[in-house]
Structures are given as C-alpha cells and as structure tokens.
Amino acid sequence: MAGRLRQWARVIKRDVHALYLASRDPRVPLYAKVLALLVAGYALSPIDLIPDFIPVLGYLDDVILVPLGVLAVVKLIPPELMAEHRELAAAAQERPVSRVAAAVIACLWIASVALVVWLVWR
C-alpha cells in the first residue's frame, strides 16, 4: 500500500511539473495555460487553502484539490502535447540533485544577508 501511494505521489509530482511546462507551450490553448499555471502554482506554493499544521485537514486539500486540478487541466490539453510534457518532466526528475551546490547557494544567501545587515547596522 505504501509503495502504491509513493508511486501515485510521484505521478502527481511529474504531472504538476508537466503542467508547468505545458503552460509555457504556445501550442496549448490559453484557457488551459491559465488553469495549468493556477494548479501548478497552488501545488508548489507554501501557502495552502487549509494550513498544513492543522491535523489531517491540513493535508486533505493537497490530497484532493491538487489531483482534481491536475485531472481537469490534463483533459484540456491535447493528449500528444501532454505526453510530450510528461516525458520532459520525467526526464527532469531523473536528473541528479547536488546537495553540495544547494548548501553553497544557501551559504551565499546567508552571507549576503549578513553583509547587508552589517552594512545597515554600521
């Protein structure tokens, strides 16, 4: 059961990325682009309809609204275009992730903020 849930979550994550890619494609109708951006933005946004810290209900909107939004937009996009964007999103998921690079970037941001605070304080 847990394996199926993980697979379902990966599919939703891939489809949200595919919707973002589709929203930038000129071959996709405008109404589908707008809805795709709204769904992808909601899925990737840290701000939720119901905050995640509320037990059970906090994740309920993510489990229900995001898949329903993805399903609605997928039906609006031509199947051949959606298949193309799903392939691109799947390829992006398989790329290696560098945690060292992420740490270096985080350190640069922290150092920049510290420098600005120090210059303002002085």
From TrEMBL:
Keyword Disulfide bond on entry: no
Membrane spanning stretches: 30-50, 97-121
Protein topology in the membrane: Multi-pass membrane protein
Domain DUF1232 residues, every copy: 32-68
Family annotation (Pfam families): DUF1232 (PF06803)
GO cellular component, as recorded: endomembrane system
Coiled-coil region(s): none
Domain of life: Bacteria
Subcellular compartments: Endomembrane system
Matches recorded under InterPro entries: DUF1232 (IPR010652)
Key words, A-Z: Membrane, Transmembrane, Transmembrane helix
Protein name: Uncharacterized membrane protein YkvA (DUF1232 family)
Taxon lineage: Bacteria, Pseudomonadati, Pseudomonadota, Alphaproteobacteria, Hyphomicrobiales
